[in-house]
């Protein structure tokens, strides 16, 4: 049966959409006006939210009318089916939605009056999106476009918390860092639909904020610990491999933060390796405790099997047409994997290149990648790679961002077979990558200004 977008949206979507947009805008603008005088970063609160909502609507229309459906319509349909079940058998609804009990017994509780769950019911990771979306779709009155607005209002909280953190860490540069939080084109598009990517990226950003509040600022620790655990659970439930990158990167951040507070260089050099070792052991302990939740990512053998399956899929590259790419053959020995680090990381961060873009969506991503690559090139040319590395090493949060970007880029670049998936899978690293680029650029600019002032001062001294 051919896909019909009008099975998912109708006249009520278009009648309710402007109402939801106006209400959201009024509330957001009211919050901004109350906060902006004391907190300058709030001047971007409403703009960031509206851009995200527009991105979600654009994503939805592209999937409805260009791609002719896809995961987003499946997630929405299943969330609506769950909501129907709430009014028929609430115990089954809560069993499935809160406990994730996707048993055969619960499946047969659904009927023609509720609708039957789709094929994702048997996939815990995929069906979790519908479980998370269920109350949000309910707030959207079970209509697609209003639900997209609500999903983005809630997911925006992670982006906003992330930006508030950046404004505290980089007070002199917070204005330009709005681009990292709100205005990355690929993130605005791929991270705003009713999709796994939307929930995972907001959870990653909110997780980062709570780590900062608990371990660095040490404020509202009980609340933030609860939020930290909640967002960790969302990440593990949807995309466990992201948590595998997030956890060690967080320990690099915290150990670096604690060691930079030690003024004695000898003591710092002795303590730093010990903290890293403790962080590594704690990471292993946490991963062993939650191993069952990680599924295919619970141990090295499972990860390699998944990577091997993806590699075999990649070999059949003709199925991807012009969007297919290949970083070359490799096996799963340590030496072979290490040899693919440069190609995988390059693909994970900078591809598709401009000349590899075959449609408008890939072209936007290609332009984004080109700008980032160009800025990196200019900085390396003007101040040198060693100077840039020194800046990253001296800043705990930039160290965290660097390791997280590298781990995700390597994972995605190694195991992804086409540009469409690549662009989606790497969006969790994009805000951190752009923070790295913008803060390094800011430091380069300050260095140039100091050199100019020093030159001018010497020139005046010579004249006098």
Helix run count = 22
Write down the Rg. 24 Å
Summarize the amount of helix as a percent range.
over 70%
Through-space gap between termini: 86 Å
The main β sheet shows up as: none
Regarding quaternary structure, what we see is single chain
Number of strands: 0
Give the count of structural domains: 2
What proportion of the residues form beta strands (DSSP E)?
A: under 5%
Q: Would you write up a description of this structure?
A:
The protein is mainly α and 464 residues long. The chain folds into 2 domains: 5-194, no CATH class; 319-454, no CATH class. It is 74% helix and 0% strand. The protein has 22 helices and no strands. It has helices spanning 11-35, 45-65, 71-86, 90-97, 104-107, 124-139, 144-169, 178-182, 185-190, 196-217, 221-238, 240-260, 265-289, 291-294, 300-315, 334-339, 341-350, 360-383, 385-394, 396-415, 419-425, 430-463. α6 packs across α7 and α12 runs antiparallel to α13 (265-289). The longest helix has 34 residues, at 430-463. The radius of gyration is 24 Å and the shape is globular. It starts with 10 loop residues before the first helix and ends with a helix. The model is unreliable at 317-321 (pLDDT under 50).
């Amino acid at each position: 049966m051919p896909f019909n977008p009008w099975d998912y949206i109708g006249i009520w979507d278009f009648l309710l959409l402007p109402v939801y947009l106006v209400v959201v805008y009024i509330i957001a603008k009211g919050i901004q006006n109350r906060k902006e005088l004391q907190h300058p970063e709030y001047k971007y609160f409403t703009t960031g939210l509206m851009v995200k909502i527009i991105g979600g609507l654009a994503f939805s229309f592209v999937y409805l009318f260009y791609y002719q459906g896809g995961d987003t319509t499946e997630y929405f349909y299943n969330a609506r089916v769950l909501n129907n079940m709430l009014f028929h058998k609430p115990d089954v609804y809560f069993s499935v939605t809160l406990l994730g009990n996707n048993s055969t017994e619960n499946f047969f509780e659904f009927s023609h009056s509720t609708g039957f769950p789709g094929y994702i019911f048997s996939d815990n990771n995929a069906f979790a999106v519908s479980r998370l979306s269920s109350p949000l779709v309910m707030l959207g009155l079970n209509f697609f476009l209003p639900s997209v607005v609500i999903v983005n209002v809630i997911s925006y909280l992670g982006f906003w918390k992330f930006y508030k953190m950046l404004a505290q860490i980089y007070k002199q540069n917070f204005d330009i860092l709005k681009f990292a939080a709100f205005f990355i084109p690929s993130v605005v598009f791929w991270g705003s639909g009713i999709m796994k990517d939307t929930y995972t990226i907001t959870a990653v950003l909110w997780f980062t904020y709570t780590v900062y509040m608990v371990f660095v600022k040490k404020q509202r620790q009980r609340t933030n610990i609860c939020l930290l655990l909640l967002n960790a659970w969302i990440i593990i439930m949807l995309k466990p491999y992201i948590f595998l990158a997030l956890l060690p990167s967080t320990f690099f951040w915290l150990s670096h933060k604690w060691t930079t507070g030690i003024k004695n260089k000898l003591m710092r050099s002795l303590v730093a390796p010990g903290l890293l070792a403790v962080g590594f052991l704690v990471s292993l302990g946490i991963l062993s405790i939650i191993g069952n939740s990680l599924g295919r990512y619970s141990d090295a053998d499972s990860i390699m099997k998944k990577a091997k399956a993806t590699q075999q899929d990649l070999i059949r590259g003709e199925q991807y047409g012009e969007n297919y790419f290949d970083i070359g053959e490799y096996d799963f020995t340590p030496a072979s994997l290490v040899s693919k680090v440069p190609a995988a990381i390059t693909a994970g961060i900078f591809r598709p290149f401009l000349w590899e873009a075959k449609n408008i969506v890939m072209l936007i991503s290609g332009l984004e990648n080109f700008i980032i690559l160009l800025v990196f090139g200019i900085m390396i040319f003007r101040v040198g790679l060693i100077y840039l590395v020194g800046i990253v090493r001296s800043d705990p949060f930039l160290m965290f961002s660097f390791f997280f970007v590298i781990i995700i880029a390597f994972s995605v670049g190694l195991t992804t077979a086409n540009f469409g998936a690549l662009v989606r899978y790497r969006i969790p690293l994009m805000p951190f990558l752009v923070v790295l680029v913008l803060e390094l650029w800011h430091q380069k600019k300050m260095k140039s200004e100091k050199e100019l002032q020093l030159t001018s001062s010497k020139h005046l001294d010579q004249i006098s």
